[in-house]
């Protein structure tokens, strides 16, 4: 299975009781979006393997999962620390200026002062910050995917409207003298 069609949901943290249940941490803002899952994909040996969920119960900031075919502590232990995935079509729909990083790939970036700047060609993840890479006037420009700078997410026209700080583009477009 192609991981590109899936998104990272979380990890199996530990076993829960002797009947093969596990505690799964979902790395999401709102756990309630996931309370009716029937299937989950677990990364096993580099492949995403589908697992049917028999029982799903909220437990503090995680879920207790009972997976079909996992009925012993030994089978559950083999899943600890494994990554969990779901198909992209299971992502909750976002409204307004909220967006998922993957969805803005290939969006056109426009600034309220400078106009159209370029198309998001790739995303680069750094601790605490994801940057969108565009080509503007032949130069690579990195733009933080920062809601304080993004004024509008136009999904219909595939555009991100920014209000860049004064001089931000100059860092990339002004020739340096040695």
Please describe what this structure looks like.
There is one protein chain. The protein is mostly beta strands. The protein folds into 2 domains: 3-90, Beta Barrel (Elongation Factor Tu (Ef-tu), domain 3), CATH 2.40.30; 101-173, PRC-barrel domain (SH3 type barrels, Roll), CATH 2.30.30. 5% of the residues lie in helices and 47% in strands. It has 2 helices and 13 strands. It has helices spanning 73-77, 170-173; strands at 6-16, 21-26, 39-44, 47-59, 62-67, 83-87, 108-111, 115-119, 122-126, 129-136, 139-144, 150-154, 159-162. Strands 1-2-5-4-3-6 form a 6-stranded antiparallel barrel. A 4-stranded mixed sheet has the order 8-7-13-12, with no helix packed on it. β10 and β11 (139-144) form a beta hairpin. It is elongated, with a radius of gyration of 21 Å. The N and C termini lie far apart (50 Å).
């Amino acid at each position: 299975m192609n991981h590109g069609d899936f998104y990272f949901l979380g990890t199996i943290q530990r076993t829960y009781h002797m009947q093969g249940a596990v505690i799964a941490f979902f790395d999401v803002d709102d756990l309630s979006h996931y309370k009716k899952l029937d299937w989950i994909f677990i990364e096993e040996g580099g492949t995403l393997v589908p697992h049917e969920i028999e029982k799903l119960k909220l437990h503090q900031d995680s879920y207790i999962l009972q997976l079909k075919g996992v009925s012993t502590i030994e089978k559950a232990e083999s899943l600890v620390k494994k990554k969990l995935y779901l198909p992209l079509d299971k992502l909750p729909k976002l409204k307004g200026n909220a967006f998922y990083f993957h969805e803005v790939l290939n969006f056109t970036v426009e600034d309220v002062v400078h106009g159209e700047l370029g198309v998001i060609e790739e995303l680069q993840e750094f601790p605490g910050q994801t940057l969108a890479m565009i080509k503007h006037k032949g130069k690579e420009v990195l733009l933080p995917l920062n809601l304080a700078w993004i004024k509008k997410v136009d999904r219909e026209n595939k555009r991100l409207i920014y209000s860049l700080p004064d001089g931000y583009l100059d860092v990339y477009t002004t020739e340096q003298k040695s």
